[in-house]
Write a structure and sequence with these properties.
Largest sheet: 6 strands, antiparallel
Number of helices: 9
Radius of gyration: 24 Å
Distance between the termini: 52 Å
Length: about 240
Amino acid sequence: MLFPDFQKNIFDIIKVLNPFQVLISAVEENKENFRIDVDMRYLNELIHLEVLEESENLLDLDVIAREGKLITKGEYHVGDYTLAKFFKVHEVLFHVELSPVWVKSNHVRFRVTNYKIWNKERKKFDLVKIVSRIFPYHKNYLLKELVSLYPHILSLTKLQNEVRLNLNYYFQKAGILNNNVKVHRIDLEPNKLILYLRSSVMLRPLVDFFGSSIISIYDVVSQSENLLNQTRKKR
């Protein structure tokens, strides 16, 4: 009579210690179930309304998504910078291209792949452009200034050519706890930033906070199941 109970206990232990079950659970934990599309065109309208009004020196800013790249361009007043005073430079135009490197703890690390600065006033010899090419310090100065405007969102890594974007800030603003959402990867398409993530809660508060013109949310699992069913029907 004891053997069946002993056998049942052994099977229960094997089930718990089953490495394949552990692997399956790990895969399920890391499986993406939502996709968020951010329309960069409407996001720029929000930036102009809420960001530019708060800054005295940042005169213009546009954030554009291209295939695999995030492009930031705008106008910045550098009249208070010592070297700018010496050369009588007032405003500069900048163009920065960033490529995503990885996502960790809902922080996206971008690498600066292209960076240009030039004088807004057209000159035969643009000293701003020439000096920025020779001495990268001046490019780093402007990058630090831009990042310092949004300390809750942006920060520089130890590598001077990398910028970290904190997505947790936006989740918290929408009332979503960080431990309920895990962003796995991002993608960039024309005018669109795409987040692939796993969430244990509904993400509707993001739409309520930003607006349906900026944020679109898709159930990745349902889309995959529908595609699989369509494929089976064709067969």
